[in-house]
Amino acid sequence: MSSWILAEGLTSEVTCPICLNLYQDPVRLECEHNFCRACIGDFWGELESGFSCPQCQETFPQLRFKSNRLLANIVERVRQLRLDTPAPSREPSLVLCTRHEEKLKLYCQDDQEAICVVCGVSKEHKDHRIVPIHETVQFCQEKLKESSVQLTKRVEAIKGIEASQEKKVQELKDRADAIKRHIISEFDVLRTFLQEEQDVVLGRLQEEEQKLLQEMEENFKKLHDEKSTLESVIVNIQQRMSEEDPVCLLQIEARDCKLRGGACQPVERWLIPRTPAVRGVEEDEKAHQSRLCQTC
């Protein structure tokens, strides 16, 4: 065991600072620091000047190092010791009493500390509650086990609460989704109804418009024809006004009266009455508004 300890103590002294392994072909620089030949060569690389030590940073104008045979022999010896001497087995370290260097076999419940047998019979712990340390350890283990059981039960209870909360959250999401779908469906129905009502109202309005336009065109034609007739009569009257024969004038006057009898009819008789059609459209609009209010 002493040889192994010696080998381990020398290992730090024969370790290359660059590769952190035992020296391989060690060389010494001018600053007395040692390195593996390959390690220092790789460190300097292709430098041609300004060679510095990796440890002390001292700079050398030229590449100069010497083989350290003594250090190489020591490295071989340390390496051999490490191979020949197995590492000691690790045993659990025993905590001893700092006063008497005895094993701690007792436990003082009053001072709550582990003590040795000598401490147990000393004046310092006289009349104290002292029990074997293994009983105290067993008691602590039982307490820890009891605490572990209680904590485990609490964890299970929390898991149950979490599961219940997750279920309620999911139910709430499902209910909200159902309400959303219902609202969307209702609005789809309402939009369909409004579109159908709009088509009906616009269709009736278009029919009324076509009917009124047709009647107005017919009346406009009649007015135009009557205007043309009257203009012709006016021209004839103006031509006859220059007639000097009384008999001819009377004949013209009689004919003119007959024509004026037709011309004196009011022009408004040819106009299309607007009120009934407009009133019908307005009534339809009120009826549709009432149906919409009932639907909503």
Automatic annotation (TrEMBL):
SUPFAM superfamilies: B-box zinc-binding domain, RING/U-box. Gene3D superfamilies: Classic Zinc Finger, Zinc/RING finger domain, C3HC4 (zinc finger). InterPro entries: TRIM/RBCC, Znf_B-box, Znf_RING, Znf_RING/FYVE/PHD, Znf_RING_CS. Keywords: Coiled coil, Metal-binding, Zinc, Zinc-finger. One of its GO terms (molecular function) is zinc ion binding. Residues 162-233 form a coiled coil. Residues 16-57 form the RING-type domain. Residues 92-133 form the B box-type domain. This is Uncharacterized protein. The lineage of its organism: Eukaryota, Metazoa, Chordata, Craniata, Vertebrata.
